[in-house]
Amino acid sequence: MLKDILKMIKKERYISKSKIAKELNTTEDVIEQAFSQLYNMGYINIQNSKECSELKCRGCAYASLCNKKVPLNTIIITEKGEKILNS
Amino acid sequence: MNTIALVGNPNCGKTTLFNALTGSNQRVGNWPGVTVEKKEGSFKFKNQEYTVIDLPGTYSLGSFSEDEIVARNYIVNENPDVVINVVDATNIERNLYLTTQLLEMGAKVVVALNMIDEAEAKHIEIDIKKLSEKLGAPVIPTVASRKKGIENLISKAVELINKDVDYKAHISYGQNIDREIENIKKFLENKRLNYSPKWLAVKVLEGDKDILNMIKEKDEQTYNSLESIIKNDGFENRELEIVDKRYEFIHSITSAAVKKPKENVVTLTDKIDRIITHKYFGLPIFALIMYIVFQLTFAIGQDLLGGIIGTGLEILGEKIDSLLVSINAADWVISFVIDGIFGGVGTVVEFVPLILVLYTLMGLLEDSGYMARAAYVMDNLMRRLGLQGKSFISMIIGFGCNVPGVMSTRTLDSNKDRMIAILINPFMSCGARIPIYLVFISAFFPDKGGLVLFLLYALGIFVALVMAKIFSKTLFKGEASYFIMELPPYRIPTAENVLRNMWDNVSEFLKRAGTIIFAVVTILWILAMLPIGVEPYSQESILGQIGTVIAPIFKPAGYGTWQAAVGLFSGIAAKEAVVAILGMVYAGVEEGAELVKAIQSAFTPLSAVSFMVMTLLYTPCAATLGVIKKETNSYKWTLFSAVYSFAIAWILSVLTYQVGRLIGLS
């Protein structure tokens, strides 16, 4: 299943966990868990736009002007992930 | 006393079950060395007392979080007599991952299939007997909240304590890994590591750092031998194969024992996304939505609310003027308060209703989940242009303010992508530039405000994309790295989130008007009054002389006056200052009482458009330049950013004016 998810990430233009769950005949919760596992094992990188990299909003003079409220998770397949897809 | 451990996923009803089992006989503390709460209790069954340990809620028994490690270490080190694994019957597939790991460990497991009533209500049919057979462990249905099935559960757990059983999940990880597990298991059998050798073998192959460190600490020689075995076995990505096989195992169980009603295959989110994120329609829809937002901003902000603050400030200004005259205040005090504060800062504050409406509408889009789609649509466009799509996140942030926009480029992995994203970010029209557009729109295009604002934002994006493409082909060549994004489901925006978003922006706008803009206005007011004896706000003042020196640069763009030049010059300190300074040098001084009327006398519609193009694209404000220096760690690139953006702005501004003139628009 994890390999299938990696393949779908590679193939698709955007990810919807409900779509993956449907295609893999499982639940969104399982897909959520699988994403955490892929991340923990270093196959993907997940970046949340709300976590402004190393920036700490507290104490940032521009925090209230920052458009960080756009709920955006981006996923990148790491080199390790690419390797398994190419194997 | 026999010990029973309770383990389960978060929110599976484990604590409810713990309370149902132990009643008031509970003690709360902390697990040693960590901040995870430890709950312990006891109960009596057939005159025998049992201790119950409530382990932290966890989805798996890996080594990625404190909760996982605490739960795993307790089961492995303390070896409870029986483990009750609480499984949420409504979410059985996810919960069984933990069950599988417990069985792998060789623990005596009883599965409490909790919330079975909710599963029934959702028409999920679970064949308990089959589930138990497939898992190789007893399964007892429970409803912990109503204390249903508790008696059966206790009875089965106690029965297991006294039985010598070997419950283990028979998971095959594939021929190669199974053989490897067997090899490592044999190797570990005589090493006295106090753990099940098979479980250790699986963990070693999963690359579990916690377990590997434990082996290293206890027996370095064994650790080295294991390292060598793994290094030379020729397998890669074992951990992924192992996790995948666990999921296969779970899927085989649920396929046989669980029947779920068919879900609606196409959700509403899917249906909307088919249109909103469409390959060809996505971008026009995004443009249309933004156009509507800007139109509504003017329709509500200007037509309905506009003038409220302006009129209020005018009345207040007149009253204060009369007061200052009546107390014989010095002329310079009256000039500073009326021309400086009311003419300068007041002009900026007049636009609060429009800002308020714009940010309320943007908040609605953000909270509904649409902005993530907008980002996706823009990413698509950038990919088609062969650009790194991820920089659009910093571009979106830049629409609020370029400072965090530039800072957020830290999320980009490659230096090339980062430099491009930093250099194009100032072309994103930040909130501080809005009052400038609003003044000129009110003066010349009051009926087409939304369209003009929309075109300005679109021009900013267009120039950013063109420059990104040029940079990627010239200054920063390299491979573009791609990523994929997750689109959250749509939701109805909440009033709280939308209003908070609006207030954040409006309060910051007012705060800046009262601090930075006030400071800039004060400095420029002094320059407008000096040297002593000169006519205030005249061309002979220091401010006028500075403007006169700069003004010829802007003549080909249609606004070669010293006032316009000074306005643009002040915008390098802070963009809002442009309006404040125009308010100071035009309104109430020569052309008329209101800035809008003054602007109508000093500009033509064509030169107004040319001026707006200039303010959209020219040199970023001082704060943005400061952060560009910090992020690039280079004065060279900071200077480059200041100069090249000015050059592009000037070229496009001149082009706008000259082409406009050629086709007879002036």
Properties at a glance:
heterodimer, A: 87 residues, alpha+beta, 4 helices, globular, B: 666 residues, alpha/beta, seven-stranded mixed β-sheet, two-stranded antiparallel ribbon, 31 helices, 63% helix
Describe this structure in words.
The complex is a heterodimer of chains A (87) and B (666). In chain A, 44% of the residues lie in helices and 14% in strands. Chain A is an alpha+beta fold and 87 residues long. A two-stranded antiparallel ribbon of chain A has the order 2-3. Chain A contains four helices and three strands; from the N terminus they run H-E-H-H-E-E-H. In chain A, helix 2 (17-23) packs across helix 3. By secondary structure, chain B is α/β, with parallel strands linked by helices. Chain B has 31 helices and ten strands. Chain B has a seven-stranded mixed beta sheet, sandwiched between helices. In chain B, strands 7-9 form a two-stranded antiparallel ribbon. In chain B, a hairpin with a 6-residue loop joins strand 2 (26-30) and strand 3. In chain B, helix 5 packs antiparallel against helix 11 (238-257). At the A-B interface, helix 1, strand 1, helix 2, helix 3 and strand 3 of A face helix 3, helix 11, helix 12, helix 16 and helix 17 of B. Strand 1 of chain A pairs parallel with strand 10 (484-486) of chain B.
